[in-house]
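Journal club side-thread
Mid-discussion, someone asked how the predicted structure for our own chain would compare to the paper's figures. Pasting it here so we can look after the session.
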Amino acid sequence: MMKREDISVHLAVLLAGLAFGTVPIFSVFLRNSHVSSIEQSFIRLILGSLAGIGFILIHAKRNRISFQKSQTLSVQKTYVAQGLLLATSLNCYLASQVVGTPVGETSLLANMHPIVTLILAWIFLQESFDKKKIVSLLFALCGLIFITEPWDWTSFLSSIIGDILALLAGISYAVYIIIGKISVPKRNDIAPSLSLGWVLIWGFIMWLPFLFATQLASFPSEISSFDLLTYTSIQNVIWGLGLGILGNIVPFGLIMFSTSRLESSKISIMLLIEPIGVIVLGAIILQEEITLWYIIGGFFLILAIILIMSKKNKKKNHEKGKNIQKKKD
């Protein structure tokens, strides 16, 4: 049986993945209101940074020791690194679509992050590279392929630049998780919400150069137009708040909470519940059809998540039982 604490941590990761699944839904509503991709990214990150400032101010007043420790250079380096990776992942994902890569292709390539996480975690964190993780990963990849249906794409891997950018988005996300795990000892006495605050602020700062670059380049208006007046309508404010809170603050907060308690490779695979959330929300809110391929793909993803969440192996339990029996004898 899984302990209550283990259940809460696993649930936090699953909720983070489902929260990420709301991003395409809010994005559709904002796009229908003529809010460009850059404007969507801006509201997502600026709300995150404002929440980050709030978290920091609260801890500065109530927990000065934790706040002071978070200001040290060695700890701030980890926040800057994660902020940069957060911004890079978001920028690469958006830029991949800017150059014309199909959405399904971008999603498939960006969601390769569990492979990268598994390899990096094995190299830098000495996390196990066992059979269960490999089988879980294979199930997850099958699920992603069925959901994105690459056989229906008019072209596959046709845009080298776009495909590289999509892969970089996934790699950046994987490294973000790894850096968070490596930084756990340095942040041991720092509240997760305080660490999240710094990361969100640095993420927004690191994203700003990309905003300026898109304004100088000649991209289509639906991608690069930037006018804060788009958020003057109540409707857009509501969708923007949803995108910023459920698409940024909540999931990254839950990941920050879980990082010290779970293996990074496990977190990365469990976060692939996101496409399932997108499918369900799309059907409920947008009345999108749930196809047979969606059902098959979702089934494989659920299998991957159940397998990675299961207990390690029976051998360890058997050996533990033997030791207990020896003590009794």
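Post-session note: Residues 314-322 have pLDDT under 50 and may be disordered.
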